[in-house]
């Protein structure tokens, strides 16, 4: 078995003092009487011992704290027993001793470094240097603090099993919950210039809550009812370690979290063939053939009726060309002649009408509103070429040639070579004359895929050299800095897709290189993969009765959060599960393969079929904006979808996941 070059992902115990020192760990409880302001009481260990915590006055409950300590870990069990009816919120704080200004922070799937890539209207250090959030915002209910000067780090992980949630009448201020919940909070705080981990129960968000895209709201503190004689037991684990970089810190924490939470695959509802048969209904029902460009309608549809719109979008969201290829491949394998004819008509229409005067793919055309995007993106152009090369390779293997298509793609690839900067990056957005509109390099890895494919298909050395230069840029500016940002086109922030694309880009380069160079790409693929994995849920978020996702039994494990700005989960996966399987083999890392199994089993949960539509009007139109926390994209909120969605990309993503041999097949014998 091949071994990856080590980047020290091990969790190393810091020398010297043990983790637990009295005075570092403090706690307080806030009690609320309905109709009155809440009152907070600091708690300290009682002189009577036994882990009893007491306040300066007698309280209507007994609070007992048990600590189990080792050199690098404290396990905390907090038990609250009410002596009369009360409403409470309990908070604990652990002072790390690290200088706050020197630290970077980590809340998986929501916070990286200091979130300075995000704007002031999303959670970031631009607004505050102390944040605490409800646990269901996070792919792992954990906060980490990393000292970039010494490599020392601390984390706190909630270890209770979530099994219930309660509705709240308000999302700000002091809120009494309607019933029992499993959701607490976690975060970090500047405590007299020292970094502290803060955590507690039930949830409390400060200094702001985040309720929809770029909309901060006032802080919220929730209170759970505890009846007389009732007990609530809460558990957390604090750990410390040392890592040589923020990347290795994130990797070590992900490995540890995976081992602790131990997510298991969900019992599959469908085989891959059955899933494709359901998804194929989208291809036929979404086909729009009454415009010069033929396309599958995948943008701005309503979940309530799934009626086709008049927007043709090539990449990012609509994925028209990739879905045309998927439809053609499926139709020919299953004798669906009408579907095959529709798929071919899409390719033919784009050959004749799908390019700009400058030779770029027409990215977004809205026929009803009679408008068209005149700013182009390296991401959509790349995704278009990716689909076209997949189509041409499929056709070539069946003895069918398309010289006009090949000429079109070569012209477009020449534009790519002209756009590439000396440092290997590509601008995020530009005009038809290649004038740069957005010079950000965050979308660069999306170009690596078609460049490696073009080298394999056409044999052009220039394409391989261009791909290698993207790898150099990614290594220097994204991967080595652990700075993955703005790959998605509808947000300017830290996001999942930048790390996922970076990892996938390195995976593609392993097919066209060998020896030490290939091993370098394997190592970079692995390093970026940990950041992509950090966005994927290792636990099941609880929902309240009446929240549709909970009522239908949705499990969030294996689904990925999107970005700091767009705080919902989705099925963006494409080849990444295959990348994880590849890394498991190359690096001898079974966790990757196990997580791939979780993802593959989980992402098919909400497949809409007759009699089990999961809130979607049509069979096969897979949902997009799955709102799993106290945030909405504009409508409906936790437990529901936004009313507008884009099934074009969700179908394409799942189809790619269900075709794990596709990339191998493309590069085979080349």
Structural class: alpha+beta
Total of helices? 15
CATH topology of the largest domain: Glycosyltransferase
User: What is the residue-averaged pLDDT?
Assistant: 95
How is the biggest beta sheet arranged?
17 strands, mixed
Share of helical residues: 25-40%
CATH class of the largest domain: Mainly Alpha
Name the CATH architecture of the largest domain: Alpha/alpha barrel
Task: Give the tags.
17-stranded mixed β-sheet, alpha+beta, 670 residues, Glycosyltransferase, Beta-galactosidase, Chain A, domain 5, three-stranded antiparallel β-sheet
How would you explain this protein's 3D organization?
The structure is a single chain. With 670 residues, the chain is an alpha+beta fold. The protein folds into 2 domains: 25-261, Beta-galactosidase, Chain A, domain 5 (Distorted Sandwich), CATH 2.70.98; 274-667, Glycosyltransferase. The chain is built from 15 helices and 31 strands. The longest helix has 20 residues, at 378-397. It is globular and about 85 Å long. The two termini are 24 Å apart.
Describe the secondary structure blueprint for this structure.
Layout lengths: L24 E7 L7 E7 L6 E3 L6 E10 L2 E10 L3 E14 L3 E5 L3 E3 L17 E4 L7 E6 L4 E7 L14 E4 L8 E7 L2 E8 L2 E9 L2 E12 L4 E12 L3 H16 L10 H14 L1 E2 L6 E2 L4 E2 L8 E3 L6 H14 L3 H17 L10 E3 L4 E2 L3 E2 H20 L5 H17 L9 E2 L5 E3 L6 H14 L2 H19 L16 H14 L5 H20 L13 H4 L8 E2 L7 E2 L5 H12 L2 H13 L23 E2 L12 E2 L2 E2 L1 H11 L4 H6 L3
Parallel strand pairs: 12-16
Antiparallel strand pairs: 1-2, 1-6, 2-3, 3-4, 4-5, 5-17, 6-14, 6-16, 7-8, 7-10, 9-13, 10-11, 11-17, 13-14, 15-16, 18-19, 20-31, 21-22, 22-23, 24-25, 25-26, 27-28, 29-30
